[in-house]
Amino acid sequence: MTTIRDIAEKSGYSISTISRALNHSGYVSATAQAKIEAIVKELNYVPNAIAQDLSTGSTHNIGVVLPDVNHPFYTQLIKGMLDAAFDSEYHVTFLPSAYDQELERHYLEQLRRKVYDGLIFTSRALALSELATYLQFGPVVVCEDPGSIKIPAVFSYRESAYQAAFAYLKKKGARHIAFTFSRPEPISATSKAVMRAYLKYYCVPADQRNIVAYVNTYQEGYDAAQQFVKDNVMIDYLFANSDDVATGARQYYLDHGLPVPGLVGQEYQVSSMLLNIPTIDHHLDVVGREAFRMVTAQHLATTRLAVQSDFILRQ
Amino acid sequence: MTTIRDIAEKSGYSISTISRALNHSGYVSATAQAKIEAIVKELNYVPNAIAQDLSTGSTHNIGVVLPDVNHPFYTQLIKGMLDAAFDSEYHVTFLPSAYDQELERHYLEQLRRKVYDGLIFTSRALALSELATYLQFGPVVVCEDPGSIKIPAVFSYRESAYQAAFAYLKKKGARHIAFTFSRPEPISATSKAVMRAYLKYYCVPADQRNIVAYVNTYQEGYDAAQQFVKDNVMIDYLFANSDDVATGARQYYLDHGLPVPGLVGQEYQVSSMLLNIPTIDHHLDVVGREAFRMVTAQHLATTRLAVQSDFILRQ
DNA sequence: TTAGCAAATGAAACGGGTTCCATGGCAATA
DNA sequence: TATTGCCATGGAACCCGTTTCATTTGCTAA
To answer: Is B227 on the interface with A (CB under 8 A)?
Structure first.
């Protein structure tokens, strides 16, 4: 490999001058600049990025911790981040965590170790307060409402969209609503928000049998419906955590000759267009883009940004 | 930041011994090991990864060049790669290219610059021969059949599945088939393979008006159908490049009260389950996984691996 | 002519590890 | 007792840039 010292030797200039010429930092004569550039071209020299990183102390690499790539939630976030990275000078590295605490700690340590210039947590198993202790080593941004914890955050504000959805259901005369969630209520802020909105319009908490958690895919939606039927849960509406889940459930009812409940989906997926069901767009691409911008911003104040979700009633 | 020299100073041992102790490279007494470990813990020391990278010359980072994150093709590939990366010591960085040649060259240069230990090209705008010239700087794996070009490759072998599909269509009595593609025929090997299989069963090349390219999403499928109708193209079957595209097209016909043609999708998406249409599974997660394994393999022979696609006839 | 100053250049330190090689101590073998 | 050889250890080179600071060169103004 050609190094900057090779260029120095061949050109007769010192490595300092070469470095200055390459980085256009000034204090290089036109003669020197031309000569150096010619030799760089001749030897087909490119600076070693690792050496530059060591010298400058930054890698231009942002780590994005995500539990699961399959879920539409993360697919959309990823898209937003990649878009933002595209016209920045940073790269994005995806770090699958599967909600493993040890693994998440490992990634945090990587921040200390300077593997990444910053970290984005799209979801997490660790406590927010633990994440916050790593802020001294570099920017850490989370994609959820951090409440009272002081940590930069970008997240979708779901309350009003959820309320709009339940107002709609109430108006439609829905009485027995079932729910599917990605993660059960105690852990997940999202499911809490849903139940809060539900409570506001229906005044009594939902029966636990009307709730199935760990549902993410079409197939799991299908299975959830099966469970409702098996448990003899009578419902006239299903409030699903994604459009694909909603359509999976629908299929179960169809396959078994049962009446299909009304459906409300989320995430604005193709399947909701197909079935023409209402859905909720959480604009996760925007959340991803802004989280990326925040983590790469020069001055990371303890900012937080809420992106408003939209309830989309088709036709 | 605590450095290895701090540990050396505090422990009374030399940095060589510290390094050996940390890496368990032997030649360290039990006494020294214990003392060093204690001090490492006390000072909460973690080695700087960039310095290690510079010293060892590798970053444990694999770059994955992809034109588009949205397309199911890449979504599935990504999933496979992340799965493989998960239990390896490597990270994955996604490099969006939008089929920009300059950008792709830039990424290749990053390989020379040691930003990545290896590159995977899921698709590309550059000539394979140009990619191959970078093999001297590190492993480069492509996700397509490279033909006579000597470059490591992992790709789906589609011929037999396509043939099965057209055999099925022929048997069903399909006469006028339309096609959608992600990229038009001259560029894309995939579309060439489709047309080859079609020709085998239908003996005459398809009418150009029956082909629409640059179709990837539900909406673009909808638009493609519109174009067929506008061009007065009569079809009894649509051979789409993804299930979502097929369902988008279907919707157009429905929306306009037109008879819906028979559909064949690809990529085994949720929408094909929903509509119960035949599809083709290209097992792109496997392709992604194997590509990742290949690029991180110790000895990168000029290997190639073909993963067989499956025609899936539902029910 | 010379002081004064800016521009151009280079030596060396620095970032923080890994690793080669030399050295010293000590036990087993001849 | 002298030799051999292994183990533990440290010094220093190495990876390859950036940056600080000192020095030299060249020009302008007095």
So the answer is: no
